[in-house]
Amino acid sequence: MTFAYFWMFIFLMAAGAPIVFALLISPTASLFVDGEQVFYKALLSRFYNGMDSFPLMAVPFFILAGELMNSAGITRSIVQFSQSLVGHVRGGLAQVNIVSSILFAGLSGSAVADTSALGKMLISSMEENGYSRKFAAAITAASSVIGPIIPPSGIMIIYAFIMNVSVSGLFAAGLVPGLMIAFGLMAVTSYLAKKRNYPIASRKATFSERTQAFKLSGPALMTPVILLGGILGGVFTPTEAAAVASAYALVVGLFILKTVKIKDLPSICAAAALQSGVILFLVGAALTFAWIITVSGMAEVIADSMFGLTDNILLLLLMLNIFLFFVGMFLDAGPAIMILGPVLAPIFLALGIDPLHFAIVMCVNVTVGLATPPMGLVLFVAASVSGEKVEAIAKEMLPFLAVEIGVIFLITYFPALSLTLPKLLGLAT
Predict the structure, then answer these.
(1) What does the H/E/C string look like for 322-344?
(2) What is the pLDDT of residues 386-400, one digit of tens each?
(3) How far is CA 269 from CA 245, 265, 281, in A?
(4) Among 56, 392, 62, residue whose Cα is nearest residue 246
(5) b/e string for 344-378 if b means 16 or more Cβ within 10 A?
(6) Residue 22 lies in a domain
(7) How far lies 238's CA from each of 151, 245, 282, 332, in Å?
(8) What pTM was estimated for this model as a whole?
(9) Which helix (H) or strand (E) covers residue 285, if one does?
(10) Measured between alpha carbons, how far is 284 from 162 in angstroms, rounded to an integer?
């Protein structure tokens, strides 16, 4: 079997074809060109089985939970609580943006949802308070990548399913890197705020005001506590946790906050179903593509090429990060994981890299890629919400991007940063 499918995939992507069709058309056409039509049945089987999976049920349930929470209007309460914590420091609204992203990560696990929801609330407010619109959009986009790193995370669920890694372990491994990125962004923001004399958002909140803000955001903040507590405590599986999250979000919206009405449910479910259908269809297509990569022997060719350059594990990890960073400029996080995970993971696992360590390095890498030009998805969302040009936002993001790249290299060369927590919880060896 030749590698014709790879060149067809590159051509289709360059021609602007949607990635899901590029993933499906290239192997199908390649088998026809190679006269290997006997594999068509296996191709269809891989496509169907890729979607027909119990662990993947977590994805639509988490999406539904996010839709319910967004419809319940919990974003404002999170922002108000964040402002009560850090609004009194110089550059307070920028710091509120970052803290809100940390809290929002436990609800949606989506960088795009974070950028859209927080951007609509904070970018205009930041501009009115003396920040440039491009800086406001940049900090919103930069902090949104925390969403898929701090659990729960949709891309981690997908990686765990494809590569047979513990979802719970991967969730635990993502917590420290996510917080490292957050604190790094806050440090850079503090420096820029003093240098550019950004304003203080509000006076320092009293203890009672913080308590009140905490109470108002309590239903939202309990979501990650329930989910992670249940998963890490062995009360329920990640798939069951997603269903619990949906049920909890429904109760909060209908009966506690009373901001979701029964008549709203059909449109909420329809939006969640549409997003879920797109993702599951993409998963099936990506697993089909991953299968043909395996049977064609491309992974072995790539491994031989890498080992032909060097057998130094430190240099190979450097090459991995550079490659994934470059891929992240053009490919969305989900497809990057589904296509490259089955190719790259076996190579580095054979070198003795811990499966959970490789998983978190790859997930953080492709997530940061969401905020890198020219094709970073959150950059386009931030540009849409703010009205600024992508180029202007990307330029303003450079200091924040440097922090995120620095964290990637730290967790790459110091595995204990991401593996200590899973080991303490008995989720890694």
Answers:
(1) HHHHHHHCCCCHHHHHHHHHHHH
(2) 888 888 998 999 999
(3) 14, 6, 18
(4) 62
(5) bbbbbeeeebbbbbbbbbbbbbbbbbbbbbeebbb
(6) no
(7) 11, 10, 21, 24
(8) 0.79
(9) helix 265-296
(10) 11
- Tally Cβ neighbours within 10 Å of residue 227: 25
> Token match 């951007």: residue?
119
Cβ(219)–Cβ(257) below 8 Å: yes
Q: Minimal CA–CA distance to 256: which of 77, 418, 18?
A: 77
Across residues 324-330, what is the average pLDDT? Answer: 77
pLDDT at residue number 137: 92
Which amino acid is it at 43? Answer: L
Would 148 be classed as within a structural domain? Answer: yes
Q: How far apart are CA 348 and CA 226, in angstroms?
A: 35
Q: Please tell me the distance from the alpha carbon of residue 416 to that of residue 413, in angstroms, as a whole number.
A: 9
Q: How many structural domains compose the chain? A: 1
Residue corresponding to tokens 């209007």: 73
Task: Assign 3-class secondary structure to 400-421.
Answer: HHHHHHHHHHHHHHCCHHHHHH
Residue 339's domain comprises 54-424
As separate numbers, helices (DSSP H) first and strands (DSSP E) second, the chain gives: 20, 0
17: left (phi over 0), alpha (psi -120 to 50) or beta: beta
What's the token pair of residue 200? 């203080």
4-34 pLDDT, tens digit per residue, is 878 888 888 778 787 778 888 888 888 888 7
3-state secondary structure string across 16-68:
CCCHHHHHHHHHHHHHHHCCCHHHHHHHHHHHHHHHCCCHHHHHHHHHHHHHH
Render pLDDT for 27-37 as a digit per residue (tens, 0 to 9): 888 888 877 77
Instruction: Classify residue 205: in a domain, yes or no.
Output: yes
- The residue whose two tokens read 């899973």 is 422
- Residue 130's SS3 state is coil
Rounded mean pLDDT of 231-254? 81
**Residue 27: both structure tokens together:** 């192997």
What is the predicted pLDDT for the residue at 44? 82
DSSP tag of 253? I
Q: What is the pLDDT of residue 400?
A: 95
**75 located within any domain:** yes
Q: Any residues with CB less than 8 A from the CB of 84 and at least 6 apart, and which?
A: 205, 209, 210, 213, 214
Return the structure tokens found at 167: 């979802």
